[in-house]
Amino acid sequence: MNIAIIGAEISGLSLANMLNGIANVKIFEKSRGFGGRIATRRFYNEDFEFDHGAQFFTIKTDQFKKFMQPLIDQGIANVWNAKFVEIDGNNIKYQKE
Questions:
Q1: 39: helix, coil or strand?
Q2: Mean pLDDT (whole number) for 78-88
Q3: Partners of 5 in the beta sheet?
Q4: How far apart, in whole angstroms, are the C-alpha atoms of residue 50 and residue 57?
Q5: Other CB atoms within 10 Å distance of the CB of residue 8
Q6: Is the torsion defined by CA of 63, 37, 14, 43 positive or negative?
Q7: Measuring CA to CA, how many Å separate 48 from each of 40, 42, 51?
C-alpha cells in the first residue's frame, strides 16, 4: 500500500512514523526543512536562530510520552527550560525563571 502525506510538520511526521512497516509512505513538504510551526530557523552567515509559531509542546499523556521518548533519547527532541515573560504595555504580568 502506498500513502502520501502532505506536510512534514509534527502531525505528518507522527503519522508517517506510525505507518512505518505497514505501508510505503512518502512525505511531501513545500519548505526546505521539516517541523512546520515548530521548526527552528537558522541564519548560518550569522550566529542567530529563532523559533516561530509554536516553540514548544507539552507531553501530557503516557501515549505521547512513549512516542517522544525515543526522539529524546536520540537527541532529536529535548526538554526546553525556557524563561518566560508576559508583558502588558510597560508591565511584566508574569515571569518564570
A1: coil
A2: 82
A3: 27
A4: 16
A5: 19
A6: negative
A7: 11, 6, 11
pLDDT digits (tens, 9 = 90+) for 32-76: 777 777 777 777 777 777 666 666 788 999 999 998 899 899 988
Instruction: Please give the Cα distance from 48 to 70 (Å, whole number).
Output: 28
DSSP 3: E
Compute the average pLDDT of residues 5-34. Answer: 89
pTM of the model: 0.51
Strands 24-28 and 2-6: parallel
Beta bridge partner(s), residue 49: 42
**Phi, psi of 8, rounded to the nearest 5 degrees:** -100, 40
Q: Is the pLDDT of residue 22 over 70?
A: yes
Quick one: average pLDDT of 17-26?
Answer: 93
How many other C-beta atoms are found inside a 10 Å radius of the C-beta of residue 9?
A: 20
Ranges of H-type helices in 1-97: 10-19, 62-73
